[in-house]
Amino acid sequence: KAGxxxxxxxxxxTRGQQVTLSCSPISGHRSVSWYQQTPGQGLQFLFEYxxxxxxxxxxxxxxxxxxxxxxxxxxxxxxxxxxGDSALYLCASSLVGTVGxxxxxxxxTRLLVL
Amino acid sequence: xxxxxxxxxxxxxxEKEDVTLDCVYETRDTTYYLFWYKQPPSGExxxxxxxxxxxxxxxxxxxxxxxxxxxxxxxxxxxxASQVVDSAVYFCALNGGATNKLIFGTGTLLAVQP
Lengths: 114, 114
Fold this sequence. Notes:
A: mainly beta; 4-stranded antiparallel β-sheet
């Protein structure tokens, strides 16, 4: 079974631009979560999607948004990029996203904002 | 509030040494789940183990073993006879409450020298 895939793997943007990251979950998994990893803040939860609906959200500004499609693929968007948005963005999938369910992570997208 | 503490920032050992990575957690939930993930330089978080709060049995998987003690709120991870391929950042994570959001520790960088 193929794992979680994320595209692109690397991205360079400038301040003020917007960016869209994509995540394809493991086949059959319907829950997709996004995490941001930075040296200063560590790994932080962004949001979780299930059945095309955002079910949970972390403490991030409204510039961070996402969506999920009927095939469970998910995208996240960051508008008006700031230098501090430079990070590794990790996507994780699980079957239905219940408490305690194991989440499997993709390789991440490394975003650099100049 | 939920919190995970990994006090060891970096550990360096020589190949074939045993090494223990510490993890201490805080939660008010009676039902919760603990995880360990490995992050090699490539960036992907690799799932290692999941343990629920009702199962305090220690687990061994090859060279890896985990010691879960509710009395001290700890979930430590031991690698026996370490190998260079074990070099990575290891994260302990907690999931409890009503969502599948993972709360991560700050990670421990393990460097295994040949």
